[in-house]
Amino acid sequence: MNKTVSPAIQVYPDPASASRALAAEIADLIRSREKKALPTVLGLATGGTPLPLYQELRRLHAENDLSFHNVITFNLDEYLGLDHDDAHSYWQFMHQQLFHHVDIQPQNIHIPDGTITPADLAAYGRSYEQAIRDAGGIDLQILGIGTNGHIGFNEPGTPRDSRTGPVDLSEKTRRDNAVHFSGLQLVPTRAITMGCATILDAKRIALLAWGERKAAIIRDALHAPLSPSLPASYLQEHPATTFYLDQPAASKLL
């Protein structure tokens, strides 16, 4: 990809209505691929932004017989130094918010391992990339966006061709995430994340953003020149990206 395109923009009154719309699209994707005896490969995000989406997917599973038996998932990232049992790990987050509530097969769940030793991180990143390829590639990647423009944990300065591997977290990202910990000093300083190129390999991307505090970065991600200083700007090159916004997050768009 080397030509910019215009990501689609869908604006909703609130996060719940946006999440219902996207969840319905995900359900249609799962069911249509299941009819063809094909798995659905989803790239998943963590944090507060996707919570209403996961709530709606849980409801569709419970009330509308949406099965995740044939779904394969790959999470974007994980904090380094946290094991599965840590309450702050994204492994715990995903199981509490989605996986414990649906019929996904445990072997189809892929979340970066925060306990990988530094010496093994490069090889582990390559193996994560290979697992995505072996699954047939990601059909739909869910993204949030940081207030500094990061996607996954790809901080400002990350090149477009980056692949899954370790990253240093910016102080801004750590401060933004400190609300989930008992103070900034407990927020890990490093993480492992899918790279920008990994994200852009997805067949389709859905970026979610809520609230006025995300309005300026959403405007820049859509309209600023492509630059490593704003990793979300790389989405302008992706031919099938949709931004799902509530009205406050869309308030600075022309």
Task: Please tag this protein with its features.
single chain; 254 residues; alpha/beta; Rossmann fold; 7-stranded parallel sheet; 3-stranded antiparallel sheet; 7 helices; globular
| Major sheet | 7 strands, parallel
Number of domains: 1
Question: What is the averaged pLDDT score?
Answer: 96
Judged by helices, strands and strand pairing, the structural class is: alpha/beta
Name the helix and strand elements from N-terminus to C-terminus, one letter apiece: EHEHEEHEHEEHEHEHE
Count the beta strands: 10
Stated plainly, the CATH topology is called: Rossmann fold
Query: In CATH, what is the class?
Result: Alpha Beta
Q: Oligomerization state of this entry? A: single chain
Report the radius of gyration as a whole number of Å: 17 Å
- How many helices? 7
Strand order of the largest sheet: 1-10-9-6-2-3-5
Shape annotation: globular
Low-confidence stretches: none
Please state the second-level CATH architecture: 3-Layer(aba) Sandwich
Proportion in β-strands: 15-25%
Into which percent range does the helicity of residues fall? Answer: 25-40%
Distance between the termini: 26 Å
